C-alpha cells in the first residue's frame, strides 16, 4: 500500500512539475508578446508624430500660399481700380 501511495505521490509531483513548466513557458511567451506589442505601438506612435509634423508643415505652407495669393490679389485689384478709376 505504501508503494502504491508513493507511486501516486510521485505521479502527482510529476504532474505538478509539468504544470509549473507549462505556466512558466506561458509567462515567457506572454512577456515576449507584450514586448512586441510595445515595440509596435512605439513604431505607430513615431509614425503618427511624423504625420502630425507633416500636416503642420503642410498647413503652414498653405497659410503662406494664402497670404501670397491675397497680396497678389490686392495688387491686381489696386491696378484695376487705377485703370477704372
Key traits:
85 residues; 0% strand; mainly alpha
Explained architecture:
This protein has one helix at residues 2-84. With 85 residues, it is an all-alpha fold.
Q: pLDDT below 50 for ≥5 consecutive residues: which ranges?
A: none
The helix content, as a percent range, equals: over 70%
Q: Would you tell me the overall average pLDDT? A: 95
Global shape: rod-shaped
> What is the radius of gyration?
36 Å
Distance between the termini: 122 Å
Order of SSEs? H
- Secondary structure tally: strands: 0
The secondary-structure class comes to mainly alpha
Task: Describe the structure concisely for a colleague.
Helices cover about 100% and strands about 0% of the residues. It is rod-shaped and about 120 Å long.
Task: Furnish the topology, listing elements before pairings.
Layout: H1 2-84
Amino acid at each position: 500500500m505504501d508503494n502504491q501511495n508513493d507511486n501516486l505521490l510521485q505521479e502527482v509531483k510529476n504532474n505538478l512539475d509539468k504544470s509549473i513548466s507549462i505556466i512558466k513557458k506561458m509567462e515567457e511567451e506572454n512577456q515576449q508578446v507584450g514586448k512586441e506589442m510595445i515595440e509596435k505601438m512605439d513604431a505607430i506612435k513615431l509614425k503618427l508624430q511624423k504625420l502630425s509634423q507633416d500636416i503642420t508643415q503642410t498647413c503652414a505652407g498653405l497659410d503662406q500660399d494664402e497670404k501670397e495669393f491675397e497680396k497678389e490679389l490686392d495688387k491686381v485689384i489696386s491696378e484695376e481700380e487705377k485703370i477704372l478709376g
